[in-house]
Amino acid sequence: MVQQDTLDRVFACLADPVRRGVLIRLGDGPASVGELTEPTGMTLTGMTKHLRVLEEAGLIVTEKVGRARLCRLAPAPLDEAMAWIAFYQRLWARRLDGLDVFLTLRGGARQQEAPPGSTPPQEPRQRATNPSDDGKGPGE
After folding, report:
1. Residue 44 in contact with residue 69, Cβ under 8 Å?
2. Strands 68-73 and 31-32
3. C-alpha pair distances (Å), 27 with each of 7, 30, 67, 76
4. Which of 2, 77, 90, 137, CA to CA, is 20 to 30 A from 58?
5. CA 117 to chain centre
6. Residue 6 neighbours by CB distance under 10 Å
7. What are the residues whose beta carbons fall under 8 Å from the beta carbon of 50, sequence distance 6 or more?
8. Exposed, middle or buried: residue 51 (CB in 10 Å: 0-12, 13-18, 19+)?
9. Is residue 121 scored above 90 in pLDDT?
10. Are the CB atoms for 20 and 54 separated by under 8 Å?
């Protein structure tokens, strides 16, 4: 199973719109810090802080190429998060399928209990909450 600390960091990164935007952009290929900063309108220092958090979470890898710092996506932590999500998706799908079977069987048993040609029981009428409201329409 996935380590909890990794999941916490991945989901914390995904919760931030700037960091999600960086990951989406890096999905198209490597980019420099300047290229990542340009569409956001933030300072290089501000973007560098976001990139540091992404790098600490293992979501990106940065390397110095000449005078520029190049960033690229590291998909392993996202794959781990997807495996965690898939596990719980399968778990809940099985549970909901079981509930569906139970309700179907229970509904079939109720239909068998009712005598042929009988009408299903109706829900009781709501009682009036206002003493002047007797449940009848206007002028009745």
Report:
1. no
2. antiparallel
3. 20, 8, 23, 13
4. 90
5. 47
6. 16
7. 16, 18, 19, 22
8. buried
9. no
10. no
Where does the pLDDT of residue 113 fall: very low under 50, low under 70, confident under 90, or very high at 90 and above?
low
**Where is pLDDT greater, at 107 or 122?**
107
**Full DSSP string of 31-78:** EEHHHHHGGGT--HHHHHHHHHHHHHTTSEEEEEETTEEEEEE--HHH
Count of residues in the chain? 140
Cα 41 from Cα 43, distance rounded (Å)? 7
Please give the structure tokens belonging to residue 74: 């590291």
* 3-class SS shares of the chain: helix, strand, coil, % to 5: 55, 10, 35
Who wins on pLDDT, 55 or 139?
A: 55
Q: Is the pTM of this model over 0.85?
A: no
Token duo for residue 52:
């540091």
pLDDT tens for each residue of 71-104 = 999 988 989 999 999 999 999 999 999 999 999 9
Question: Of 99, 32, 36, whose CA–CA distance to 71 is shortest?
Answer: 32
